[in-house]
Amino acid sequence: MRNNLPIPRSALVVAAHPDDAEFQCGSTLAKWAAAGAIIHHLVCTDGSKGTWDLNTDRVGLVETRKSEQIAAASRLGATGQVIFLDEIDGELRSDLVTRSAVARVIRELKPQVVLGHDPWKRYRLHPDHRHAGLLTIEGVVAARDPFFFPEHGLEAHRPQTLLLFEADEPDHAEDAYGWSDVKTAALLEHKSQFVTTHDITNPNDETQIRAFQNRVEEDLAIAGELSGMKSAELFKAILDL
Ligand SMILES: [Zn+2]
Questions:
Q1: Distance of CA 147 from the midpoint of ligand 1 (Å)
Q2: How far is the centre of ligand 1, averaged over its atoms, from the C-alpha of 43 (Å)?
Q3: Each residue's pLDDT tens digit in the chain (241 positions)?
Q4: Which residue range(s) make up the domain with 55?
Q5: How far does residue 16's CA lie from ligand 1's centre (Å)?
Q6: How many whole angstroms from 199 Cα to the centroid of ligand 1?
């Protein structure tokens, strides 16, 4: 297992839903931001199915999740853009139109590192994560080659490194030691997800908040054990783009 890329000048994380970036690579993004990297978020779907409450105002939910994502990025110390593609939650497609949109963002922001879902993760059920992963890799390929989507009128851009999270075969670890608190704080900005994702039924119950923090720390520690560190986030690294 390799570890710890040099701190990039800039990074773009491509996530299926608001909160995926923080869950999968929040510590890594916070560590890089603190060292001066510009961190951008691209969120593919509108998060409109992120509730079990049948009485939810789902238009309101979309706006809530956007503001939560912006607050979470800010908690990480991210100073770049937070962009929403606004595809319908659960209906993301890795088609040419959406690929063009992702490639356009990569060309505009010129990130040195791109992070995204591993589209080849076996037995993962959620289609948005698979499609977001495909859009990430296909977006990188399109962005780097000038004859893809020339209608963008933008220079081609080739990122240096692609890190795939939720990786089927992780081969790269980022040291997350000391970066669990900020990851937890960012995740706790996604308040609309407390019941469905964070297992927090009462936001004022300190015990539940601490249990969530412990869960974040445990996940980082388990990833650390696999990589010879106390605490880590794991990726499949594609270094030759
Ligand atoms: Zn997700």
A1: 32
A2: 10
A3: 999 999 999 999 999 999 999 999 999 999 999 999 999 999 999 999 888 888 888 889 999 999 999 999 999 999 999 999 999 999 999 999 999 999 999 999 999 999 999 999 999 999 999 999 999 999 999 999 999 999 999 999 999 999 999 999 999 999 999 999 999 999 999 999 999 999 999 999 999 999 999 999 999 999 999 999 999 999 999 998 9
A4: 2-238
A5: 5
A6: 15
**pTM for the full predicted model:** 0.97
Cα 92 to ligand 1 centre (Å): 11
Ligand 1 centroid distance, CA of 37 (Å): 24
The tally of domains found in the chain comes to 1
The DSSP-derived string for the chain is: -EE-PPPPSEEEEEESSTTHHHHHHHHHHHHHHHTT-EEEEEEEE--TT----TT--HHHHHHHHHHHHHHHHHHTT--S-EEEEEEPTT-----HHHHHHHHHHHHHH--SEEEEE-TT-TT---HHHHHHHHHHHHHHHHHHSTTSSGGG-------SEEEEES-SS--EEEE-TT-HHHHHHHHTT-GGGIIIII--S-TT-HHHHHHHHHHHHHHHHHHHHHHTSSSEEEEEEE---
CATH number for the domain that contains residue 137:
3.40.50.10320
Query: 190 alpha carbon to ligand 1 midpoint, in Å?
Result: 12
